[in-house]
Specification:
alpha+beta; 6-stranded antiparallel sheet; elongated; 15 strands; 30% strand; disordered N terminus; 312 residues
C-alpha cells in the first residue's frame, strides 16, 4: 500500500515538473475539505491537540508515565467510543475491553492504526480522524453516517498481551465453556482443537487429497451464529487447499461419512487477529461488500457444528 502511494507521488512530481501545472484531484479536494472541517471544529471548541507521527490530531485525556508501550505484534485491549464530528454517537464499548493486534492494518477506521502508537497502558486519548483516514466515500446501509464523514474516537488502552498469552487464555476460556455446557467425551488435541462426536458415522475418514461435501454452522462461544450453510446448499470443498481454517480442516479429517461433530477451537486455528471494526455493527456489511476478508471478530474462539455428507 505504501509503495503505491510513493509511486503516485513520484508521478505527480514528474508531471508537475513537465507541465508546470497540475489540476487538483477529487481526492485532494476532499482531503482539504475534511482537514478544514476538523480544523474549524477544533478552533470553534477551543481544543488544543497534538499530532501523531502520522499526522493524526489527538488529545491525551489520561497520561500514565509508567504505563507500558505496546510492541509491534502485541495484542492491545481497549475500550472506546466512536462519534461523528457532528456529535452522533455510533458506539460506546466501556464494559469489556476488545482486542486487536498492534500493527498497521488491524483497525477500521484505518486512521486509528496511525494514532494508537501514542498510547501506553492506562492512558486514554481522543483522536480526530478526517474522512480520508476513515471510511472515505463509504456510507452504511443503515445511514448511520454519510459518505466523507469525519470521526472522533476516544480510546483507552487497558492492557497489552503477547499472542502466546492470548492463546493460553483462550484455551482456559474454551475449557470453562466445555465445563459450563456439561459436554462429555470431548477429545482435546495438541494443536488446541477440541472434538466431540455428536452422531457417529461409518467408514473411513477423508484423506488430505479428498473432496468433501458437508454442512456447517460457525458460532461464537456465547451461541451467536456467525455463518452457516443453507439446508439445500451444502459446502463442497477440496481438502488441503487452504479453503478451510486450520481447526475446521483438522476436525473434518477426523470425521466419518454421516457423522455429526462439534469442533471447538481457539483463534489461532480459526481467524486469528482479524480486523477490529468500529463501530462493530458494520462488520457484516463490510464483509459482504468485500472490504474485509472475514466476518469473525479478532481473537475469537469459535465452534463448528459439522455434518459430513460425502467423501470423494
Amino acid at each position: 500500500m505504501q509503495k503505491g502511494k510513493i509511486w503516485v507521488g513520484v508521478i505527480v512530481i514528474l508531471t508537475t515538473l513537465v507541465t508546470g501545472c497540475l489540476e487538483e484531484s477529487d481526492f485532494e479536494k476532499q482531503q482539504k475539505q475534511s482537514d478544514k472541517e476538523i480544523s474549524n471544529y477544533l478552533k470553534e471548541n477551543n481544543i488544543n491537540t497534538e499530532t501523531s507521527s502520522f499526522g493524526i490530531h489527538y488529545e491525551k485525556l489520561v497520561s500514565e508515565p509508567n504505563g507500558e508501550a505496546p510492541a509491534s505484534g502485541d495484542v492491545m485491549y481497549v475500550k472506546y467510543m466512536i462519534v461523528t464530528l457532528d456529535g452522533d454517537t455510533l458506539e460506546s464499548v466501556q464494559d469489556e475491553a476488545v482486542p486487536f493486534k498492534f500493527n498497521w492494518n488491524s483497525v477500521l477506521p484505518q486512521g486509528m492504526n496511525y494514532g494508537i502508537d501514542i498510547l501506553k497502558t492506562g492512558e486514554k486519548a481522543r483522536f480526530y480522524l478526517p474522512s480520508y483516514t476513515s471510511y472515505n466515500s463509504y456510507s452504511p446501509s443503515d445511514n448511520s453516517f454519510r459518505a466523507y464523514t469525519n470521526f472522533i474516537v476516544e480510546m483507552e488502552l487497558v492492557a497489552t498481551m503477547d499472542e502466546t498469552d492470548v492463546q493460553n487464555a483462550e484455551i482456559d476460556t474454551i475449557e470453562d465453556y466445555i465445563a459450563s455446557e456439561g459436554f462429555e467425551d470431548v477429545i482435546p488435541s495438541s494443536s488446541g482443537l477440541y472434538y466431540k462426536t455428536l452422531t457417529p458415522g461409518e467408514g473411513e475418514s477423508p484423506k488430505s487429497y479428498n473432496q468433501v461435501k458437508l454442512h456447517y454452522k460457525r458460532s461464537y462461544l456465547d451461541g451467536t451464529v456467525i455463518q452457516e450453510t443453507e439446508a439445500d446448499k451444502p459446502l463442497t470443498v477440496q481438502m488441503n487447499t487452504n479453503q478451510l481454517v486450520k481447526g475446521f480442516e483438522q476436525g473434518v479429517l477426523q470425521m466419518k461419512k454421516g457423522e455429526k461433530a462439534l469442533l471447538i477451537m481457539p483463534s489461532n486455528l480459526a481467524f486469528g487477529s482479524s480486523v477490529q471494526i468500529m463501530p462493530s455493527n458494520l462488520r457484516e456489511e463490510l464483509f459482504e461488500y468485500g472490504h474485509i476478508t472475514t466476518n469473525v471478530k479478532p481473537y475469537a474462539p469459535v465452534t463448528y457444528e459439522v455434518e459430513l455428507l460425502e467423501i470423494k
